[in-house]
Recover the amino acids of this structure.
């Protein structure tokens, strides 16, 4: 215990900001969702109508949960529980890898292992740290549900379900850290497992059996394969049954046992799976600074693109649902029209709403290219490139080009996904045209974020990453939810997304798009020119 | 034979911190120039300015008689660089990083020649080019940067502590590559803390401290600035006799021995005098550069700032 405490304190100290953000953010989301039950989704009759819609379009369940009735608590759980569990999983796997493989890879673990704490105790400390973090998360989530006036026992079950899912994924992250030599690989595996758990459960929910009144749905067997599915089986506010969580805790116990077995069998710094060898010579793509910028970003762009294809496909797949929303759930229909403007047909409004999300994805990918430039600069790997005959302007220009390319790729792929989805629609041609225009309409707004990100990078390099994400979050929030939340117009108008052309009602007004294209071109040109006058700023 | 590097009164401020405070540095074409100084003296800052990664706050820096900030990209066609702390791309293998940097520097125009050179260097430095950047140890990251630097011939090699993290065998390989480059007429600016490396390679050295040059010259010039150290078994009373000898300085008694330093050109004249005293267990150590370095690396600025032409303070005296 005397040795464990300092290790725990070190972990708590290192994570204090990060974990606080995860926990507060997750609980905040729970609060927003529960508050939205009353304001956005109308009264119980409307909520019942929405739940019945899922019989027509079970795909919607993938991103929500298993319906358990139309009461406020049950409906809040239907809206958000699976997503909260997903966040708990991500928080926990990152935590597990950070304090085990991450430290080992950076040789920090060696410093600690050479003290009497030895090799095993730091892992024990990571387990305790992770369990405590999930306990805090459970309390925060339960508190958020209760703060919206929901009953205490259901709130507690929801909180515990989220925390238990986190603990299960903590153990999964720890196993991944044993398997791979680098924290990058360990994180890649555990994040894919968290996402897989989310999708498998979604599949199970979608394939499930609906009750006669359409308000309750029993998930099919795939949901039993997923810790997130187990969390849903607690049925907070309905059955309030904690028994399924024994599966999460049991899985965690078995996996953590395995982790200690693995760890006692291997050398410090070694891994169960051998590291993968790379190429001995560079391929033809890795030719210049643009090729390098592309190579450093292609992985991230690919993952944003997957999201874009899914969003595009969903936008058109769910179209059959739209007409029913109009008649059965006027509250939702109003919400959609607020985003797309009053002249929009409901179907168009629906597509535009989805493509606003795609626009955010595209902007995120472009901003990430800028952030990569910052990481290159901060970590010193930009130096050898700039010590070669590569002008500073061309170096930054490469990242700007890759960012713009990312936007185009993501929008095109989203439109492609929409095209696939529209094959099932009544009028595929119109649906496809609408999707293509909607995708195109998002490009200028996303480019504005690229330009802004580059300007921040040039003027205040150290702020690139935090300010970049903050700009995107604010832009997305004010631009898309500003009107729904009833914020003043000028706040809403600050966001580039608010000026994206709306391809609705036949005539499209592209003026906003051209303005934004001009603004972003000017910003990119200014940033690249200014890079010629700026020194490298290496330190963190 | 003009100057490849010519720096006059160079200044660099980071906010209130003064990194370079009127630095002068002259490196002639074809010479291997040792660039020495304690940590934080401003060596890396100077190198970053020479590479156009940072801009001078004052004074003048010229590279091949051009402005290293404005003409950075063009100048870099003639320069190879090895950073002190090599940071590689985590998801690129060492071989890919070497190829990329060589392509950027235009060294792969003749593929066969490049492949041959790369193969020879990878072999000589015993580097595994298939590992990912993240998996390399510090020494191996250093090797990747060295192979990339030598795989494309340059007119000027700027090397910032290039052998830190290398084992002695690899240091020899490095010395061979430097000799090969120098034989081809290249100029080298070598920042280093390793005395033996500097003694083995450098024609001239400059020592900087707190952003200023405090010493420059050939190794022979610098050796002149130091004294030989002499010691013999202590018999009470002898130390006062030694103190009166012409050319003997800083006499101390320690661990049962009398120790003093002597002007190097006076040692021969001192020996008969010591013979007359009948000293036993006599040792005479030749002048060492280490002593000079320690004097400049030491944390007493008054000592280091003493004009090199008048070394009146006790060099290497016990503190």
């Amino acid at each position: 215990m005397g040795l464990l405490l300092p290790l725990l304190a070190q972990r708590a100290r290192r994570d204090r900001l990060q974990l606080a953000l995860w926990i507060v953010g997750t609980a905040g989301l729970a609060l927003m969702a529960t508050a939205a039950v009353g304001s956005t989704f109308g009264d119980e009759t409307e909520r019942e109508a929405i739940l019945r819609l899922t019989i027509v379009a079970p795909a919607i369940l993938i991103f929500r949960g298993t319906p358990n009735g139309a009461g406020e608590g049950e409906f809040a759980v239907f809206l958000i529980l699976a997503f909260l569990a997903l966040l708990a999983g991500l928080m926990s796997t990152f935590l597990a890898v950070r304090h085990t493989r991450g430290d080992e890879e950076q040789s920090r673990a060696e410093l600690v292992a050479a003290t009497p704490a030895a090799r095993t105790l730091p892992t024990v400390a990571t387990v305790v740290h992770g369990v405590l973090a999930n306990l805090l998360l459970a309390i925060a989530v339960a508190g958020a549900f209760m703060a919206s006036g929901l009953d205490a026992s259901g709130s507690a079950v929801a909180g515990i379900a989220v925390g238990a899912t986190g603990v299960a994924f903590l153990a999964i992250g720890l196993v991944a850290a044993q398997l791979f030599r680098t924290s990058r690989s360990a994180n890649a595996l555990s994040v894919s497992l968290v996402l897989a758990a989310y999708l498998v459960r979604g599949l199970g929910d979608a394939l499930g059996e609906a009750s006669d009144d359409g308000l309750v749905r029993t998930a099919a067997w795939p949901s039993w394969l997923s810790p997130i599915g187990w969390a849903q089986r607690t049925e907070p506010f309905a059955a309030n049954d904690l028994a399924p969580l024994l599966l999460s805790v049991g899985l965690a116990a078995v996996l953590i046992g395995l982790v200690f077995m693995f760890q006692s069998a291997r050398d410090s710094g070694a891994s169960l799976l051998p590291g993968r060898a790379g190429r001995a010579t560079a391929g033809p793509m890795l030719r210049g600074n643009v090729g390098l910028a592309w190579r450093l970003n292609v992985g991230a762009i690919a993952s944003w693109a997957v999201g874009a294809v899914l969003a595009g496909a969903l936008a058109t797949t769910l179209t059959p649902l739209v007409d029913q929303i109009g008649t059965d759930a006027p509250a939702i229909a109003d919400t959609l029209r607020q985003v797309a403007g009053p002249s929009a047909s409901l179907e168009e409004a629906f597509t535009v709403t989805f493509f606003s999300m795609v626009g955010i994805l595209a902007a995120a990918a472009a901003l990430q290219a800028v952030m990569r430039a910052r990481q290159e600069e901060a970590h010193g790997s930009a130096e050898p490139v700039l010590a070669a005959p590569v002008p500073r302007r061309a170096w930054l220009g490469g990242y700007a080009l890759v960012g713009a390319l990312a936007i185009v790729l993501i929008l095109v792929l989203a439109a492609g996904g929409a095209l696939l989805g529209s094959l099932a629609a009544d009028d595929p041609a119109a649906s496809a045209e609408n999707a293509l225009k909607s995708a195109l309409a998002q490009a200028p707004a996303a480019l504005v974020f690229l330009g802004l990100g580059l300007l921040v990078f040039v003027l205040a390099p150290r702020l690139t990453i935090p300010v970049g994400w903050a700009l995107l979050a604010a832009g997305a929030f004010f631009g898309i939810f500003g009107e729904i939340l009833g914020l003043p117009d000028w706040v809403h108008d600050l966001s580039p997304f608010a000026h994206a052309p709306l391809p609705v009602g036949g005539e499209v007004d592209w003026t906003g798009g051209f303005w934004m294209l001009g603004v972003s071109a000017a910003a990119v040109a200014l940033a690249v020119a200014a890079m010629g006058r700026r020194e490298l700023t290496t330190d963190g | 034979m003009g100057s490849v590097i010519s720096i006059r009164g160079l200044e660099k401020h980071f906010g209130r911190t003064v990194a370079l405070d009127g630095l002068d540095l002259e490196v002639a074409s074809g010479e291997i120039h040792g660039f020495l100084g304690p940590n934080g003296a401003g060596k890396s800052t100077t190198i970053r300015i020479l590479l156009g990664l940072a801009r001078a706050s004052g004074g003048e820096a010229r590279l091949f008689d051009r402005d290293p900030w404005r003409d950075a990209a063009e100048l870099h066609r003639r320069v190879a660089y090895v950073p002190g702390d090599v940071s590689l791309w985590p998801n690129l293998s060492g071989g890919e990083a070497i190829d990329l940097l060589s392509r950027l520097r235009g060294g792969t125009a003749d593929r066969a020649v490049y492949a041959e050179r790369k193969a020879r260097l990878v072999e000589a430095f015993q580097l595994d080019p298939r590992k990912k950047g993240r998996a390399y140890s510090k020494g191996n990251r250093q090797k990747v940067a060295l192979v990339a630097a030598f795989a494309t011939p340059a007119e000027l090699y700027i090397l910032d502590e290039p052998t830190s993290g290398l084992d002695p065998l690899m240091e020899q390989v490095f010395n061979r590559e430097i000799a090969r480059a120098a034989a081809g007429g290249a100029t080298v600016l070598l920042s280093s803390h390793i005395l033996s490396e500097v003694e083995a390679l450098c024609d001239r050295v400059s020592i900087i401290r707190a952003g200023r040059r405090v010493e420059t010259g050939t190794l022979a010039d610098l050796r002149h600035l130091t004294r030989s150290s002499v010691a013999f078994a202590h018999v009470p009373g002898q130390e006062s006799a030694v103190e009166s000898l012409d050319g003997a300085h800083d006499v101390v008694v320690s661990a049962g021995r009398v120790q003093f330093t002597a002007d190097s050109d006076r040692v021969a004249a001192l020996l008969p005098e010591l013979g007359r005293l009948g000293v036993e267990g006599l040792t005479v150590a030749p002048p060492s550069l280490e002593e000079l370095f320690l004097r400049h690396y030491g944390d007493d600025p008054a000592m280091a700032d003493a004009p090199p032409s008048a070394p009146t303070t006790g060099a290497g005296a016990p503190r």
The first helix of chain B runs from residue 43 to 50.
